[in-house]
Design brief:
Its main location: nucleus. By secondary structure, the chain is of the alpha/beta class. Helix 8 (322-336) crosses helix 9 (351-365), helix 21 packs antiparallel against helix 24 (629-647) and helix 21 (556-579) crosses helix 27. The structure holds iron/sulfur cluster.
């Protein structure tokens, strides 16, 4: 962004805008804000090993270690081998002390310089902190604007931090964290520069040198913070009376050079990986953002190039795990064969980077082929992580190959995550953001705005439209944050820009729904070429995602909402009839041609596509009985009445779509073909009526979604009507569910359309079941183990309590007081043995509530809390996030904590409990689905009849993949270690146990298969003792776990492809 004089005026937009009082924004306040933001920037972008406040502690620790080493070396009886080790460590520590000393001196000089500056020019208005290679090439920049009170003119006080200043600092850091500042990583060591705008008379040549004409790259967007001082009567004072034209830039002579690399080189690598408790101002988000990251982070990034047959693979690290290499070999086989594949590899083994490296290198080796990578993730966090890895890889490939390696890669998400219009973003949920955006961008709204200037539009969309074909993203890798920054900088809407660029991108990262939900896929993914390689990462639940994409539930409240929607639509029709009947006539004529015209709609007018098979439907003419708007409303009214009648039942009913449609036809006179068109017909009508607040019309959309699906599919679905939830039969809560049983229906278009689809996860066992469930033939289907130099996973099957009574959550045993007591005693014993975090998973919320209530009554919970703090997952996301946050804090403090959670819950799916956050995970029971659920029973019946999958097999497979998913949370990298207890006697049976992934089974010894609580405690003690010993991280002899380029070359020479590990 160009730095123009006069910026910082009140019209300018700030990412953080803080109004404060004169008492907190004196000279001392300004100094402390700069100082704290400096610390924040250095720490959050990993340029210093610990927060500024704790550096002296670390420094003291190093000095103490140095003294101890010296004392040990003077001992007469030190063995030569030990002496060598001590000497080597002493050298390292000495080196680290020097580095840290230098860093602390620089920061201290910098602080003194800032204090001198504030004394000399107390009204300093603008300060810029820049992280990067030089001030002109910033990676991150934080611009601080101060609007002072007149008091600061007379600043003669000291720089001690008073309460008001401290509060202001905390508020600032909190605001920074909530804007997402510091949540991205910097690509390596950087330098930190400080520039200030001050009068030319400033004379501190030892500390500040004038730097005229400072401005950074036009494309760069700094993060802006404003501190506005208010007088007591709340009036903002005019800016400090320097004339901004008289101010010039000064650059501070003291640079903070990154010392992270050298400090990490020593054994103190835990400094970054195990964050020091943060000062209160840094808030809880700090440790979370720091602990998340790729498992290969500890490895220094360096070049690695090797061949897999005819493909030269570029891998951005200096070592590769053997399983990563094998994974690439198998993946390449699938790409060569132009077929689909299933690959299971444990988490923490660098699956993502292996996938990205191989596919991008494969693309580079075939420059004429239009190969595109479409990478599907489950969450936005995973999307950002993948793009972060891709950035590293892309930088490396470009450094090595130059411009030919340049690609365009972007993440695509909903408006909620990409919108930059603050007024729209203020809407509370995704649907409201969508609706608020439509209100400003729909074609008819824009047409109206041309006549009426009071109609509000979105400036970002208008600039994007104005740029027309020139609105393009230059090559590069764009995370969602990058897209937002780019959009803000150019003034273009990042959401529409990203959607437009999908057709040009080489790599697209988005969520499963963009391919699996036909409503979304029909809009976003329709342009993708056949040659695209589709990857579904963490795909162990892909069958459920497919099923959910095609299932609809209708409740009483849906029908009430839909009735209100129809009333509104009816009013709108009447209004249009009176004012613009031509529009309705034009729509009628268009419907005779079919709905295909919808494809020509502008991006802003597009709605979700048809939930079934759009192309089949769009080409046909819309049935005559729903072409006229009022007739269509009438048909929908009849449909609602019919559904209301069906909900009015006291018995559970189940029927097929065919019989449902025929009874609908006979009772309400609505034909199957009419039903099929409902969804598109509704959207056509809503557009004709220029309805933009789509979020209010969700109920009628749900009903039409249901109608179209039920009218389209004759098999693979059931309609189930239940008058109440079976677990609460006394509360009437009727629900009509159109339930899809066949996961292959949603994914079939993906398999048919694209030449290679990769389904991968850490948990795909038994791997032969997925091809049957999803109805496809993989050309490659492999499960990989994790190579390890030590047995860092310790799975155990606990079948009995300390009183030798069996434990299980089997229906007839789960409430047995003996089982509940034995589970409690197991936990009490374990928390006294295991340091740090312990995570417990239960089979359901109701079971967890029941067992914890009993533990509370019997005093077991009290015994647990005497050892560790206890936190719970609830169905409320905000509560759970808070609990997780505090759980981590407790673990960071060293006291450790217990987290109670539920299989199939949010925590089990997406939260990592790596390192000290999880040393033990206990799975209480086998997490079978609720087997009396009518939907589940219908699905089981369908699977048996259609795919010959037995009920028991499917239920066991499903329960065991959930259990594996839960216990897998505890180990997220090879440097990590953790124990897993499967606490249920049923796990000792071969038919259950054998369905666990191979990487868990390979560590499950026979001696650990039938344990009582006492035996498990003994094994836990032994395991933890073993893990506390130093070990060889690289592996030796036959157990080599890190391969270098030379190893791979040697293997190629000798023709050996399979590694021993
Ligand atoms: S056009 Fe883009 S920036 Fe404007 S409101 Fe819609 S999503 Fe937000």
């Amino acid at each position: 962004m160009e730095m123009e004089e006069g910026e910082g005026s009140t019209e300018e937009k700030y990412d953080v805008d803080i109004a404060t009082t004169a008492s907190s924004l004196g000279g001392s306040g300004v100094f402390h804000i700069i100082n704290d933001i400096l610390g924040f920037v250095l720490y959050m972008y990993q340029q210093i090993p610990s927060v500024l406040q704790d550096m002296s502690l670390d420094f003291d620790g190093l000095q103490t270690e140095f003294t101890d080493l010296e004392a040990n070396l003077t001992q007469p009886d030190v063995k030569p081998l030990v002496r060598r080790k001590l000497l080597s460590r002493k050298r390292e520590v000495k080196h680290e002390i020097k580095k840290m000393q230098k860093l602390m001196t620089t920061i201290s000089t910098l602080r003194s310089a800032l204090q001198l500056l504030i004394r000399e020019a107390p009204g300093v208005q603008r300060v810029v902190l820049i992280l990067g290679g030089s001030p002109l090439r910033p990676q991150k920049a934080y611009e601080l604007f101060f609007t002072h009170s007149v008091d600061v003119l007379r600043f003669e006080g000291d720089f001690s931090k008073n309460k008001a200043t401290e509060a202001l600092s905390k508020k600032t850091i909190r605001a920074l964290i909530s804007t997402g500042a510091g949540s991205t990583s910097c690509p390596g060591p950087m330098r930190l520069f400080i520039l200030v705008q001050a009068p030319p008379s400033l004379n501190l040549p030892q500390h500040f040198l004038p730097k005229r004409d400072f401005r950074y790259n036009r494309k760069f967007v700094p993060l802006k913070l404003r501190f506005k001082c208010k007088t007591q009567d709340n009036e903002t004072n005019p800016p400090f009376n320097y004339d901004t034209n008289d101010l010039i830039w000064f650059q501070c002579r003291h640079l903070v050079n990154n010392t992270q690399a050298s400090i990490l080189a020593g054994n103190r690598s835990t400094l970054l990986s195990a964050p020091t408790p943060i000062s209160p101002g840094f808030l809880s988000a700090v440790p979370i953002s720091i602990c998340l990251g790729h498992s290969t982070r500890g490895r220094r990034r360096k070049k690695m190039i090797f061949k897999i047959e005819d493909v030269t693979v570029y891998f951005p690290y200096d070592n590769i795990y053997p399983e990563q290499y094998e994974y690439m070999v198998e993946l390449k086989r699938a790409l060569d064969a132009k077929g689909h594949c299933l690959l299971e590899m444990p988490t923490g083994t660098g699956k993502t980077i292996a996938l990205l490296s191989l596919i991008t290198s494969y693309r580079l080796s075939r420059p004429d082929s239009p190969i595109k990578l479409v990478y599907c993730t489950r969450t936005v966090h995973e999307m950002e992580k993948t793009l972060g890895e891709l950035k590293i890889l892309h930088d490396y490939q470009v450094t090595h190959l130059g411009a030919q390696a340049k690609i365009l890669a972007l993440g695509l998400s909903s408006r909620k995550n990409l919108c930059v219009n603050p007024k729209v973003l203020a809407a509370e949920n995704r649907d409201s953001v969508d609706a608020a955006c439509r209100k400003r961008t729909a074609s008819w709204v824009r047409a109206l705005a041309a006549e009426n200037p009071n109609v509000e539009l979105c400036d970002y969309f208008e600039s994007y439209e104005k740029a027309a074909d020139n609105a393009l993203l230059p090559p590069g890798v764009y995370t969602l944050e990058d897209l937002r920054a780019f959009g803000k900088n150019r003034g273009w809407c990042p959401y529409f820009l990203a959607r437009h660029m999908v057709q040009f991108a080489n790599v697209i990262v988005y969520s499963y729904q963009y391919l699996l939900d036909p409503k979304v896929a029909g809009i976003i993914s329709k342009e993708l070429q056949k040659e695209s390689v589709i990857v579904f990462d963490e795909a162990h639940n892909i069958d459920n995602v497919c099923i959910e994409a095609l299932s609809v539930s209708v409740r009483r409240v849906t029908l009430e909402g839909a009735n209100r929607n129809l009333n509104k639509i009816r009013q709108e029709i009447d209004r249009f009839k009176a004012t613009d009947a031509g529009r309705l006539r034009a729509e009628y004529n268009r419907l005779i041609e079919g709905l295909a015209l919808r494809g020509d709609l502008s991006g802003t007018d597009q709605w979700l596509a048809n939930p079934a098979l759009p192309n089949d439907i769009l080409k046909e003419a819309v049935p005559g009985n729903i072409r006229r708007a009022e007739h269509f409303v009438h048909v929908l009214r009849r449909l609602l009445q019919y559904l209301e009648g069906r909900l009015d039942t006291e018995n559970v009913e189940k029927e097929s779509p065919v019989s449902f449609v025929s009874s609908l036809n006979s009772q309400a006179g609505i034909e199957q073909k009419t039903l099929k068109f409902c969804y598109d017909r509704l959207h056509s009508l809503m557009m004709t009526l220029e309805i933009t607040d789509t979020d209010e019309f969700l109920p009628i959309q749900t009903v039409c979604d249901f109608a179209t699906l039920v009218g389209t599919y004759a098999r693979g679905f059931s309609i189930i009507i239940e008058p109440y939830d079976e677990r609460m039969p006394h509360i009437p809560d009727p629900i009509l569910q159109l339930s899809c049983h066949d996961a292959s229906l949603a994914i079939k278009p993906v398999f048919d359309r694209f030449q290679s689809v990769v389904i991968t996860s850490g948990t795909l066992s038994p791997i032969d079941l997925y091809p049957r469930l999803l109805s496809f033939n993989p050309v490659v289907s492999r499960s990989f183990k994790m190579s390890m130099t030590r047995d860092c996973i310790c799975p155990m099957v606990l079948t009995r309590g300390s009183d030798q009574l069996p434990v299980s959550t089997k229906f007839d045993m789960r409430s047995d007081p003996g089982v509940v007591r034995n589970y409690g005693k197991l936990l009490v014993e374990m928390v006294s043995v295991v340091p740090d975090g312990v995570v417990c998973f239960f089979v359901s919320y109701s079971y967890m509530d029941g067992i914890i209530a009993t533990w509370n009554e019997t005093g077991i919970l009290k015994e647990i809390t005497q050892q560790k703090l206890v936190f719970f997952e609830t169905q409320d996301v905000v509560e759970t996030t808070l609990a997780l946050d505090n759980y981590r804090r407790a673990c960071d403090c060293g006291r450790g904590a217990v987290f109670f959670s539920v299989a199939r819950g949010k925590v089990a799916e997406g939260i990592d409990f790596d390192r000290h956050y999880g040393r033990l995970v206990v799975m209480f029971g086998v997490p079978f689905q609720y087997t009396l659920s009518k939907i589940l029973l219908a699905r089981l019946e369908y699977l048996r009849d259609t795919f010959q999958i037995k009920e028991g097999d499917f239920l066991t497979f499903d329960a065991l993949r959930q259990a594996a998913q839960c216990v897998g949370r505890v180990i997220r990298s090879k440097a990590d270690y953790g124990m897993m207890i499967f606490a249920d006697k049923r796990y000792s049976r071969h038919d259950k146990r054998s369905k666990l992934p191979g990487w868990i089974l390979s560590h499950l010894r026979d001696a650990h298969l039938n344990l009582s609580t006492d035996m498990a405690i003994h094994i836990a003690r032994e395991f933890l003792r073993k893990m506390a010993q130093p070990y060889d991280k690289t592996g030796t002899m036959g157990r080599k776990t890190l391969l270098t380029q030379e190893d791979l070359e040697k293997m190629a020479e000798t023709g050996v492809q399979d590694m021993v590990y």
